[in-house]
Amino acid sequence: MAEIRVHELHKAFTDFTAVKSSSFAVRNGEFFCLLGPSGCGKTTTLRMIAGLELPTSGQIFLGDEDVSFKRASARDIAFVFQMFALYPHMNVRRNIAFPLVSQGMARDEIGRQVEQAARTLRITHLLDKPVSQLSSGDRQRVALGRAIVRQPLAFLMDEPLGALDAEFREVMCHELRALHDRLQATTVYVTHDQMEAMAMADVIAIMNEGVIEQLGAPLEVYERPASVFVADFIGAPSMNFLPFEAGLASGDDAILIGPARIAVPPLREDLSPRALLCGVRPEHVRFDDASGLRAEVLATEYLGTRTVVTLATAQGTTVRAKVDVDIPVARGDHVGLAFDAAKISLFDAASGRALRSARDETPLRAGRRARHG
Amino acid sequence: MAELRLSGVVKRFGGVTAVDGVGLDIPSGEFFVLLGPSGAGKTTTLRLVAGLERPDAGRVSIGGRDVTALAPALRDVAFVFQQYSLYPHLSVFDNLAFPLRSPLRPSPETEVRRKVEEVARMLRIHDKLQNPATRLSGGQMQRVAIGRALVRSPALYLMDEPLSSLDAKLRNDLRLELKRIQQDLGATMLYVTHDQIEAMTLATRIGVLDAGRLVQVGTPQQIYENPGSAHVASRLGSPRINLVARGLFPQLDGPERAVTVGIRAEHLRLHRRPAASGPGMAHRGASVRRIERLSDLHLVHVGLDDSGQELIVSAPANESFEPNDAVQVELLRPLWFDAEGQRIHA
């Protein structure tokens, strides 16, 4: 296994720039997610690491080796594509063995490696089945088997779960992460699904229009988004953004939205008067009759453990609140809204940049999960 | 708007029974969601109601009228498919107007204009009416497809996973709009999906389909809190309900026939130290394996001592656990299932 380092990577196509000077490092054994909407440059970045595209400029290191302009076959990595590029006329065993056969490995060694990969993926019972008889989940396990059997330096995965049913995707997320914990292989995983990234990654790089907007652990990008784009992209339902205008000074710890005074984390910068956004996640919104921030309930969505309530504020902003199912609200009700002050993010409306505040100083829980074990 | 009734509907394709004796009463104005995995018979059921398939047995009636033998065009239903199929050479306006200009049901042009504009406003695409249909984003195209169903006032709307081709964000937004529009119109809706969140949030009632059979019908809350079988219990709720062998909890009082116990992640509590066992409680030693820190709550994966069994526990975000912490697991609301996976009410 190895570290991957990407330095000032740039990719321009004739009519647009897909990746703009990206730099990041994936540590040995890390599960690294490139996350963003379609067209953000995440797949192009992955394809350059794989050697399927050549960069316009910049460098890629696999371990200590500069592989920037090496052919894909000369890089010791395994690529898992979106779904099932399996050979339909071969059984599971021969599909998994294929990369080793092409390397010219000895037959009994191949047999041993295939058995071991199958045990890791818990698909030993499927080895002699034709792939056409497999469920979609088992096919994906076989596709993974073909990647891990080579024991490459790193795995690159391009939306491998994209074609699965939502509920099955959740199961596969747990499996993939458990597999990663067993193999501890450096992995770069591309997805547009923030849930997948949040559930699996050690580090997430959120990309937008060819640029990495933020790089951090899931909890960090969730609790301290660096921009409106990141705040909006991570979390479902998304963060609420309430517009207001103000000039603020370092140390200020409240803002005015309409008639309501809203407590916020103390600011750490001075701002001339301008358009700003108050960002608050749905689970940090409460109903409070004493609050001057009034809103009307537009809809309620029952989710088993929680209810998502959609409201329109008196200022005309749509706000979503995630509340306990036993809180009685119905369409048409008028309520007051209160926010969990410590969790509020403030943004400059024009640039989208998050304002510096005490939010950035609260300790995040260390070590989202034990990295090796 | 009208009610829909299916009785004893069967549809076979060769040797496969796709729909196996489905009976269903959907009152006027209800948003009914058929939920099931691919291959459960959802889409076939929808196509039988639309008249795109003929049943091998059973009857379909809409608004009290038996339509079993009626051609699709005469059933007065509007169908929205998974893949939006717009006329690429027509503008958004003409796409929306198309059903109203149908030779079967022609309307005067002033009426067409009024109706199209009303629906376009409802779906927030009124500023796009003159655009060619191909110059729209995916979400806008799907809104036009839904709009084409809404311009008519059919007895019944049929929707086959209309949101599944959209990205997550847009899906959330359109889901809410669809619910609002359905409520405003008082429309009767039969909606098919494999996405449990859509089912929970949209439905007045959900029907869970499994292998062509309707296995449970109820409000989202009834089905979530009172599943009739282990299969239904595992279809609703994220994370998925923990289903474990009853034998792993020998000290827990349960019905004799129970083979499996189901506990939702939110009905498990983690305690740091051995806590005193009260009546109806069951504590079991376990150790924390890993933690998924999702937004407002944390999913803690624990492994039970002396067995490889893993449970997923949802813990409030302010309780911090770390891998390898030794804990006690408390079961609050166990659900019991027999050897066939059927619920046993304790």
Automatic annotation (TrEMBL), chain A:
GO molecular function terms attached to this record: ATP binding
Q: Which UniProt keywords apply?
A: ATP-binding, Cell membrane, Membrane, Nucleotide-binding, Translocase, Transport
Among SUPFAM superfamilies, the record links this protein to: MOP-like (SSF50331), P-loop containing nucleoside triphosphate hydrolases (SSF52540)
Question: Where on the tree of life does the source sit, at the highest rank?
Answer: Bacteria
| Matches recorded under Pfam families | ABC_tran (PF00005), TOBE_2 (PF08402)
Q: Which residues form a coiled coil?
A: none
**SMART domains, per the entry:** AAA
Domain ABC transporter, residue spans: 4-234
Q: Which InterPro entries match?
A: AAA+_ATPase (IPR003593), ABC_transporter-like_ATP-bd (IPR003439), ABC_transporter-like_CS (IPR017871), ABC_transpr_MalK/UgpC-like (IPR047641), Mo/tungstate-bd_C_term_dom (IPR008995), NA-bd_OB-fold (IPR012340), P-loop_NTPase (IPR027417), Transp-assoc_OB_typ2 (IPR013611)
Name the chain's protein: ABC transporter ATP-binding protein
Species for this entry: Variovorax ginsengisoli
